[in-house]
Every structure is written in structure tokens, then in C-alpha cells.
Design brief:
Helix content: 40-55%
Oligomer: single chain
Strand order of the largest sheet: 4-3-9-8-7
Structural class: alpha+beta
Largest sheet: 5 strands, antiparallel
Pfam families: Beta-lactamase2
CATH architecture: 3-Layer(aba) Sandwich
Radius of gyration: 19 Å
GO molecular function: beta-lactamase activity
Number of strands: 9
Number of domains: 1
Keywords: Hydrolase, Signal
CATH superfamily: DD-peptidase/beta-lactamase superfamily
Number of helices: 10
Organism: Halochromatium glycolicum
Order of helices and strands: EHEHHEEEHHHHEHHEEEH
Catalytic activity: a beta-lactam + H2O = a substituted beta-amino acid
CATH topology: Beta-lactamase
Length: 320
């Protein structure tokens, strides 16, 4: 079964992940079982049923609907949203989660993870040197496209030499239950116009869950790289959010995409960690001719949604 999205923006606004009733052939069935088994081995939660009745999801739907009415999100733009509460161990928002969308730079932590899977397989042959670490930092913290291509090439060199598709193969070989809608088919062009690599909000959510619970190799290092301060859209300049909140995230930006996925680590009044995931994706059907204005307005729309989520979590967990 898979989630589908209507061409009408009303379905996007009302966040209906409808279930297809069409039959699944044997190959699809086997793939589904394999993905589910891999997810169970990683300990990744499979059910998001609670999200449909979440008060937060209803609030978020109303906010996005208002943003559409104001023209902040246009009719030719589709969105996906996901929020998982680690403390309550439940999905609070699941909106168009299983639809593959352009990944842009949000694919870069996946590339890092593919490197660490390969290093685990090739013990003693592939090493995490200081030079590789610097390349990783440029890839994730500074969103360097050339650095991303370097890591992709390294992964491919040890996995058949078939280019970016080797990155996807490594991820799905080790964690097919996490990277279910992930498609990595191109290096980042010199222009930075990368539109063909895709992933779903659900993939990001499962990845972040596994990352937080150390279910993949070298999770601590990936978290460290993702926690280095950057110009994120889910904590920085978000109204009402404290400046000392820690975030592990990666943004994605093209003339057709505004995205951010990450773990927001808050504390309650007793100093206990109260982390949650936030994934937001706004995808445009065609390239905008006014990139700076477009990406700024969509980034601010995402900040407004992130602020709504934070205020909800603050009330639920008595955050400081």
C-alpha cells in the first residue's frame, strides 16, 4: 500500500494520505515484506496511524491552508510534512509522507551514511581520514556540491563503479526499510541544479529515528556533522523558539524546492531532553524565475509551521 496525492491542492491542504486499493503484484509484495523486515531489524517504527487524529496535524493543516489562501504557497506547489515525538514515541504529523519529492541537498546525510556503511564492509581498506572528515563537513555543513560528488565517487569506487546509483544500492542493501522511496541517480551538477535525486518525508523521518537511536554505523559522527550551526529553516528566526535549542539538520534548496529535515532537541523544566523530528518540503512544479524571493518566502512559511510545532511541543512537555 502507498500514499497518493491528488492533483487538487485541497487534498494537500487536508493532508490525506489515501490508500490505494489496487492489487500489488508478487514483486511489489516481496519488496514490501523485505522493507518491513529491514525496518523491524533496525527498530524503526512502522505505524503512523496516530498522526491522522493528532491535534497538531489538524492545526498544521489549517495553517498551511491559510498560507495557501494568502498566496504564500501557490497552487502549483505541493507539500509534505512529518513530525515524530521521541518522548511520546508517536507520529504527530504525517502529511503526504510517502510521496517521493526532489531531495536536493537533503540527500547529503544519506550519502554520508552510505560511506559509513561501505567503510564498515571494507574494514581496513576504506578509512575515515582527516581529509575525508573535512570533505564530509564541507558536504553537510557548508552544502558543498563538489564535496558531495567526492563522497559519492568514493562510495561508488568500492561498490561496482556505477556512479551515484551505487550510493542508493548501499543504503537499500543495509537499510531498505528506512530508504524506501529514496532514489539517487545523479551527481550534483556544476550549476547546482539537481532535480532527479528523490526521497520522501517518511524516508527522512525513518532515517532520523535510526540516527537518534544509533541503529546505523557511526551515527554519532553523522549527528555531530548535522549539528554544526547553519542557516536552517526550522529553528533559526522561528518566532518564540529559544536560541539555545540544538538542531541536527540538513536543508535543501533549488528553484523548485524548499526543504528542511532534522531533529530538534529541546529540554523540559527539569532538564530532561525532549527531542522530536521535523520534516518540511515545499516542491514547485516548474522552476521559479525569482529564486531569491521565492526561497525566502517559502523558508519563512516553513519557519511559521516549525514555530507552530514547537509551541505544541512546549505545551505537551513543559519545555523551557
Amino acid at each position: 500500500m502507498s500514499a497518493t496525492e491528488s492533483e487538487a491542492s485541497a487534498l494537500d491542504d487536508h493532508a490525506a494520505n489515501t490508500v490505494e486499493s489496487s492489487s500489488i503484484d508478487r514483486r511489489q509484495f516481496i519488496g514490501t515484506i523485505a522493507a518491513a523486515t529491514a525496518a523491524l531489524l533496525l527498530g524503526v517504527p512502522m505505524s503512523d496511524a496516530a498522526a491522522s487524529s493528532s491535534a497538531l496535524q489538524s492545526q498544521l493543516v489549517r495553517l498551511v491552508k491559510r498560507q495557501r489562501a494568502q498566496g504564500i504557497i501557490r497552487p502549483d506547489e505541493r507539500t509534505s510534512w512529518s513530525v515524530y515525538d521521541f518522548t511520546g514515541r508517536k507520529k504527530l504529523v504525517s502529511i503526504n509522507e510517502d510521496i517521493p519529492r526532489q531531495a536536493a541537498s537533503m540527500i547529503k546525510p544519506f550519502v554520508a551514511q552510505a560511506f559509513f556503511y561501505t567503510m564498515q564492509e571494507r574494514r581496513g581498506t576504506l578509512r575515515y581520514t582527516g581529509s575525508v572528515r573535512e570533505t564530509m563537513e564541507r558536504m553537510i555543513c557548508h552544502s558543498s556540491n563538489s564535496a558531495t560528488n567526492e563522497i559519492m565517487d568514493l562510495v561508488s569506487r568500492y561498490n561496482g563503479g556505477n556512479g551515484p546509483r551505487d550510493v542508493e544500492r548501499v543504503l537499500k542493501r543495509h537499510a531498505g526499510g528506512v530508504f524506501q522511496q529514496t532514489s539517487i541517480v545523479e551527481r550534483i551538477p556544476a550549476s547546482g541544479r539537481t532535480y532527479r535525486n528523490k526521497a520522501s518525508a517518511h524516508d527522512y523521518s525513518r532515517f532520523l529515528w535510526a540516527l537518534w537511536h544509533d541503529r546505523m554505523p557511526h551515527c554519532e559522527e553523522v549527528r555531530e556533522l548535522m549539528s554544526i550551526p547553519n542557516h536552517d529553516r526550522i529553528t533559526r528566526r522561528v518566532r518564540g523558539m529559544p536560541a539555545n535549542i540544538r538542531v541536527y539538520d540538513k536543508t535543501g534548496s533549488t528553484a523548485m524546492l524548499c526543504g528542511n529535515m532534522g531533529i530538534i532537541e529541546c529540554q523540559d523544566r527539569r532538564g530532561r531532553p525532549r527531542p522530536y523530528t521535523f520534516i518540511g518540503i515545499i516542491e514547485k512544479s516548474q522552476r521559479t524565475n525569482y529564486y531569491t524571493t521565492w526561497i525566502t518566502n517559502r523558508s519563512n512559511a516553513m519557519r511559521e509551521v516549525s514555530g507552530l510545532v514547537y509551541h505544541y511541543m512546549r505545551e505537551q512537555h513543559q519545555l523551557v
